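Lab manual, section 2.4: Encoding a predicted structure.

Procedure: take the sequence of the chain (213 residues), apply the prediction step described in section 2.3, and record the output as structure tokens. A sample record is shown.
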Amino acid sequence: MFTGIIEEIGLVSELIKQASSAVLCVKADKILSDTKIGDSISVNGVCLTIVEKSGNILKFDVSPETLDKTDLGNLKSQDKVNLERALKADSRLGGHFVAGHIDCIGKIKAKASIGDTIKIAFDVPQDFMKYIASKGSVAIDGISLTVGEVFRDYFTVYIIPHTLKNTTLSFKREGDSVNLETDILAKYTETLLSSKEKKSNITPQFLSEHGFV
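Recorded output:
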């Protein structure tokens, strides 16, 4: 579990593509002293496990499912990535609960400056727009953000200078892809409401036929 508060911008040193999986190597600095093999790290919003640590390089195995559901497979050497260590039980929750399980890949529709703030619009697959709510939470490339306006197939966010300086959003351009994780509360709420709508198969006749009554 993460908070969406980025701790460091890492640098991809290598992405080794295999038959259906990959190995991602990332140069880090700030988070190195408190990481070890087996730890979970959010890399551009994707929860990955450190499988090797050598000097300032963290190595991660990337599964076929992760390559299919995220844009990690498009990374190249020298690309910048957002890094965050897993949340500690005694830490402050500065952002919102971020699982590191990407829902879909979005794309930057437009960027515009409004004073010191940058307004960014993100195109999102229609199936996932139901989880996006105005003033709700969303994680973009692992960054905890507040949703601005919501439209049929895209939404906006407003990025303050601090977030631009400390995340990869300052390097992203129109048309670039991003990993998107919707608010976990929205998904749980949908599951709960869906289960209530389903009628139970346990009827008096069922109980009688199976010897319960």
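Check your result against the sample. The CA atoms of residues 65 and 78 lie 24 Å apart.
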